[in-house]
């Protein structure tokens, strides 16, 4: 049955254009696995499916990844000219200029659009923290590992949190997009119990849990919660670059708004931080607020840098969002020109579009 489903999918891909997305990862058994997803049009619907999954038995260089994909394409007689786009993460094995998978693919398919995964780019932009701020999540990780890394500590802490909504902290996983925000929020939720536990079981770690530490932890929990909301908007089987760009634009505006509020000492947009300072922003030193402001400004710059090419691409495809203001001659897809002209000259369609019908 599996072979039959695979052959049906391959047959569809032989007949028309499709896009691919690659993900190479390591399993808990320490095996490197390459998964290739495809997206294609069937009738009037956009379809997605898994094309192939293969173990990379030795190295995971760009040449190895391309060899695995090339072998599959050859065995299934899939024409490279049907590949119109490729999305991958920013690893050197994928994006390398000379030996990366994408450069090898471009040699085969010059017209293929290469795109760096937007979710991965957003995750990269969030990693830059100042030295002072970076100490805070590092300390959180140490405390979480101390409590969860020993069975006795884990049981004692769970017993201490018996009356709380949660009885355990969360481990941080670097490769999980939402991990940092969730870890910080859970840590904050159980903050009083963490403080109590450390005073009894680890005086050395307890000394690190100062008022300044909690202020920075609450701020980061607020910021990464907002970050996670945006990340979720970037996900989903029907997500496209237009929607992703809108989600990022919204995040940038929210961040800019928060910068202004932080400079004025108004913390309504930072609920966890506001709770920590007992609704009195004046208890947070001006120097610390400036540090938070610098971090948000840096985050904005990193987002702009990571997505510098997105504006140009979206502007070229703006006719998808509003076909009535686009210039037909600017549309890249020749087979759409006549259909777009018919739509633009249909006054009834225009009225329906304006009212959202």
UniProtKB/TrEMBL annotation:
SUPFAM superfamilies: Ribonuclease H-like. It comes from Merluccius polli (Benguela hake). InterPro entries: RNaseH-like_sf. This is Protein ZBED8.
């Amino acid at each position: 049955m599996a072979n039959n489903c695979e052959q049906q999918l391959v047959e569809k891909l032989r007949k028309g254009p499709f896009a691919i997305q690659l993900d190479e990862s390591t399993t808990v058994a320490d095996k490197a696995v390459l998964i290739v997803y495809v997206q294609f049009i069937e009738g009037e619907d956009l379809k997605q499916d898994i094309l192939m999954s293969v173990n990379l038995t030795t190295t995971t260089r760009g040449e190895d990844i391309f060899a695995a994909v090339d072998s599959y394409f050859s065995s299934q007689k899939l024409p490279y000219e049907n590949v119109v786009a490729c999305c991958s993460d920013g690893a050197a094995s994928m994006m390398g200029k000379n030996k990366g998978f994408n450069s090898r693919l471009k040699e085969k398919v010059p017209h293929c659009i290469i795109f760096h995964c937007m979710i991965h780019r957003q995750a990269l932009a969030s990693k830059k923290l100042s030295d002072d701020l970076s100490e805070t999540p590092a300390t959180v990780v140490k405390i979480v590992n101390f409590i969860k890394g020993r069975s006795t500590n884990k049981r004692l802490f769970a017993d201490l949190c018996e009356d709380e909504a949660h009885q355990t902290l969360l481990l941080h996983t670097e490769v999980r997009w939402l991990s940092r925000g969730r870890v910080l929020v859970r840590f904050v939720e159980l903050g009083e119990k963490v403080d109590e536990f450390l005073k009894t079981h680890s005086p050395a770690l307890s000394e690190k849990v100062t008022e300044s530490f909690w202020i920075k932890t609450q701020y980061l929990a607020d910021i990464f919660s907002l970050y996670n909301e945006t990340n979720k908007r970037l996900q989903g089987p029907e997500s496209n670059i237009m929607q992703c760009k809108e989600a990022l634009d919204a995040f940038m505006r929210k961040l800019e708004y928060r910068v202004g509020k932080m400079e004025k000492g108004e913390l309504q947009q930072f609920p966890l931080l506001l709770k920590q300072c007992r609704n009195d922003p004046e208890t947070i030193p001006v120097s610390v607020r400036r540090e938070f402001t610098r971090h948000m400004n840096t985050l904005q710059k990193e987002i702009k840098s990571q997505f510098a090419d997105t504006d140009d691409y979206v502007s070229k495809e703006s006719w998808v969002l509003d076909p009535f203001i686009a210039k037909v001659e600017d549309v890249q897809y020749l087979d759409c020109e006549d259909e777009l002209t018919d739509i633009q000259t249909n006054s009834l369609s225009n009225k329906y579009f304006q009212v959202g019908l």
